[in-house]
Amino acid sequence: MSIRKKLIAGNWKMNKTSADAVALVQEIVAEAGKQNDVDIVVAPPFTSLESVGKALEGSVIKLSAQNVHPEPSGAYTGEISVGMLRSLFANYVIVGHSERRIYFSETDAFINQKVLASLKGQLKPILCIGETLAEREGNQTLKVVQTQLEAGLDGVSKDLATSVVIAYEPVWAIGTGKVATTEQAQEVHAFIRSLLVKLFGEAVAQKVRILYGGSMKPSNAPELLAQKDIDGGLIGGASLESRSFVELIKAAAAAK
Ligand code: 13P
Question: Given Cys at both, which of 53, 78, 137, 229 links 189, Cβ 3.0 to 4.6 Å?
Fold first, then answer.
């Protein structure tokens, strides 16, 4: 058994009204709200954080935001701070998702500021890293992952490193139905773990969870989750329906 508890996180992206989000989370709570084998996180859009947070009360399921701004307050129209998220009882925040890197031109330096601000405010960052198809085909995968990981974690202390979750999401596998093979995923996860050892030492690196993301679903999850360095999943499409999300939670519980 791994020393790391598996974590299943649902990234709902830009889906669900507040009412739809509450309906979904109520189903998840009814099915999995009391189990302790797996850590469970849901990341609804900002507009549903408060209502979903209320629906999660009394359950073991934790709340995540999908993005955050590094500044505590100020003239940043359309942005949301760490303190605002904490006031809604969010515990996690997704940072550096490839959709934000690609569509909103987020740089590693900006993502690093978000990581540091989140940790300072007791919000656990889920730092997403991963290569594009062109980078994989150009044999750049490990280099890209290393750059994104090291830049994203720049300045993170050993003490706070265990509050970080890493999500390896190959961009070519997101929403495409093309899942990385277990060998491809495990190879990169093991490489990420080796980088964490260099940054923070063996003991800390063994505690940091590394999630896989990219077309994970109940049919492919058991094999992925059985890999030594795959500590859970960051799920897009399959998290939008309670049945598939709960099946993923069960798959993680079975793989612990
Ligand atoms: P899919 O599971 O829809 O491929 O999305 C993965 C993802 O981007 C999670 O953050």
Answer: 229
